[in-house]
């Protein structure tokens, strides 16, 4: 059966009108074909008014209706349909459309059949004009004007309203699905900036004077909606849910207005919807509609201020409090990635870093430092910067969970470097930071508690050997009572010239745990200069082997994370014994 369209013609394809009854469901093993042929410039629209074909599965292996986007079965398939369908619309790209109806033997059920309206018209959106011949921009087959834009890795594209720059058609809804790369090694965000915008919706409108918020904009006659979250994108693309957007735009928006964007996706996808009603408005100016630039950029999933190009993982943090993380955290970080995080305070400030999560890849029984992290103090000496690796040359790898860290005295900036190789990946890390007033002394002359909100409890002192005091103890605050939150202690012990110091751990009860090869000192940590391991915690003082210093001084630091970072309240304490000159011990109970 063949129907040929005139300039515009609407008809109904039903059992009666098209004599489909001869191949209805009362018969078995039947095949019917319907060829709809339009005039040049026309497209074909199908509307499924009623459709009830036996449903044998998602792929319709039994009874089915197949719609081809052309005049033969070699044309692309728009859709294969079975089951119950209500008020579904399908469009051809060109002038012709072929429908095949197949039933099986024996009949699987006794459903009603179908009633399909069809329409030939040249008022439907011109797909070729909408795409502008761009690579990576395709029409979504079966729709009137839905478009998909796919990234080819950090590419840029344009999307347009139908007929741009001329007046757009009435009663038209077009969705633009913008998809960045998403995979183990690639993750992109979508950035949309409108370069021209004139979608008129108010009889009295001329040019938008920027409203205080996007919520103040109402667009009854025509609109452009921007959906960036999963929930709003799902509603926008649903045939049943009411569309909801993060931003709704209309009227003629002047160049330079913040309403033009940029709009940034929350993940690798964004959806833009253009819609009109039967009421078209004009202000006598051109252009009409919109033109928008779509940029796909690498998304590291890091909240800081970008400092490099879009594919460089360089971020700066200046807020008084915040966090930074490995790329794409909590998903696995990509291979062969290098990131640098700049945490920058002002003169007279210091920085506290506390890791909430740390899980890097390391080979079991092999190299556990394939991926690593380093923390540096940054000293500003005139116009120059000097980086000092925190306390040790050891990197933090898969076997060491970093303890809380405070920037060195005189350093108001810190730098964190993360590197992954090509052999494996993990969840990565998330670290919290706080920029606070700096300590007044490198080594305290006496225990102090800074004013509330202005710093940690400071403890420690300088201990110097003498003929009468060659030995002694160093202990954490309140020992043997539980220690408090937000504590930072520094001791500097000095023997007489020509002597060394022997340190021995007497008692240690600090949150965390250590073994011969691993350490997890997330909440509290002891650091001893020159010790074989960079950090100590837990309850096994045997992990701290007696240490003889290389010279006549040693520094011991204890950092206990602040309550700000949700540290547990039932903390224990530490005791260390020191022996000066003769090589005695330091005992610490944390």
Report on the architecture of this protein:
The protein has 590 residues and is an all-beta fold. It folds into 4 domains: 2-121, Sandwich (Jelly Rolls); 127-298, Sandwich (Jelly Rolls), CATH 2.60.120.290; 305-437, Spermadhesin, CUB domain (Jelly Rolls, Sandwich), CATH 2.60.120.290; 456-589, Spermadhesin, CUB domain (Jelly Rolls, Sandwich). Helix content is 2%, strand content 41%. It is built from 2 helices and 45 strands. The strands form 9 sheets. It has a 6-stranded mixed β-sheet with strand order 11-12-14-20-16-17. Strands 22-23-25-31-27-28 form a 6-stranded mixed β-sheet, with no helix packed on it. Strands 33, 34, 35, 37, 41 and 43 form a 6-stranded mixed β-sheet that branches. A hairpin with a 6-residue loop joins strand 22 (305-306) and strand 23. The longest helix is centred in the middle third of the chain and has 8 residues, at 230-237. The radius of gyration is 35 Å and the shape is elongated. It starts with a strand and ends with a strand.
